[in-house]
Amino acid sequence: MRSRAAATLANGLPRRGRQFSTSRRLNADFTHAVIGAGVVGLAVARQLAGRQGASTILLERHGAVGTETSSRNSEVIHAGLYYGTDTLKTTLCLKGRELLYSLCQKHNIPHRRTGKWILAQNEQQWDECLKLHSHAKNIGVPTRFVSSEEAARREPDVQALGGIVESPTTGIVDSHALMTYLHGDFEDRGGDCIVQTAVTDIQPVNGGKGGYRIYTGSGGASEASITTETVINCAGLEACRKTPENLLCEGDIFLLLSIGPETEYTPISSAKPRAGRTGNAFNVRHGGTCTLWAGCGMG
User: Residue 136, Cα to own-chain centre: how many angstroms?
Assistant: First the structure.
C-alpha cells in the first residue's frame, strides 16, 4: 500500500487520461521520468512530452529549474570542431547546433552567430590550427583563415602572432531565456515539473520488466515514490554518483561587467588540448558582459 506522501506525489498531479506510449502498457504512474531540470533535462522532457500518449514527469531537487551547471555555462553554441571524426558527439553537436539556431529563431530566443576566432601565438600553435582546419573540413564544419590586415580592421585589440582561424558557425545563446522557453513548452505539452524533490533511490520493478520505482524526498517531508516505464537521468554532475568515475578539471572563470565597445567575435587560444582542456577563452555574452575562462575544460 502506498504511503500518503507517495500518493500525493503520484496522484496529486494533474492527470490527463493519456494511454501509455509503449507496447508494454505497464501499470505505471508515468511513461517517462526525467531526473534533473537543467537545460538537458528540460529539452529531453519537452521532447518526450510531445509524444502521443506519453505522460512525462520532470523531477528537480532545487526550488527552480536550471539553477546549477546550466546557469553557469559559457552560453556558446559550439561548431563541433574538437571531437573525433566518427564519434556520436560530433554527430550530435553538428545536428544540435542547427536545431538550436532554428529553435531560437522560431521562438525569438536571444542568440547570435558571433563566429569564433582561434588564435595562434607561435608556430606550434599555428600547426595545431592547421590540423583543426583540416579536421573541420573532413567533418563538414566551415572554417577560414583570417589575414593580419583583416584582423586589424575587424578586431584591432586582438593579437595573434601566429595566425587566426575563424569558425563562422559558432554562436551564443541566452541560456536562461532558452530554459524558460523549454520549461514553458514542456508544461504546455502536458508535462509535469516537480521542484524541491530530490531522487533518493531507483529500484527496478520485476527486474526492469515492470518499469522502475523512484523514491523521492522533499525537505523534511517523508519519503514518497512513483513508478515509471522509463527513467532518463539528466542530473548533471549528480548523475555521476551512479557512474564509475567523474573526471573533473580545475580552472578559473572571471566575469567582466564591461569592456567598452562590444566585440563581435569570440577568441579562444589554440593551445593543444590536454586532460580535457582547450586553453583560455574569452566569451561574449548577452547583456554586454564577457567571461574569461582560464585553463578550463571546454568542448
Answer: 22
Helix H or strand E segment including 98? helix 88-106
Nearest residue to 77 (alpha-carbon basis) of 119, 50, 109, 121 = 109
Domain residue spans of the chain: 27-75+174-267
Q: What does the chain come to in residues?
A: 299
> Which residue type, as a one-letter code, is found at position 138?
N
Sheet strands side by side (includes 252-256): 144-146, 163-167, 116-120, 266-269, 281-284, 290-294, 252-256
pLDDT single digits (tens) 37-93 = 999 999 999 999 999 999 999 999 999 999 998 988 888 999 999 899 999 999 999
205/144 Cα distance (integer angstroms):
54
One-letter identity of residue 96:
G
State which fold the 27-75+174-267 domain adopts: FAD/NAD(P)-binding domain (3.50.50)
Q: Which cell numbers in the block locate residue 132? A: 583543426
Residue 81 DSSP SS3: coil
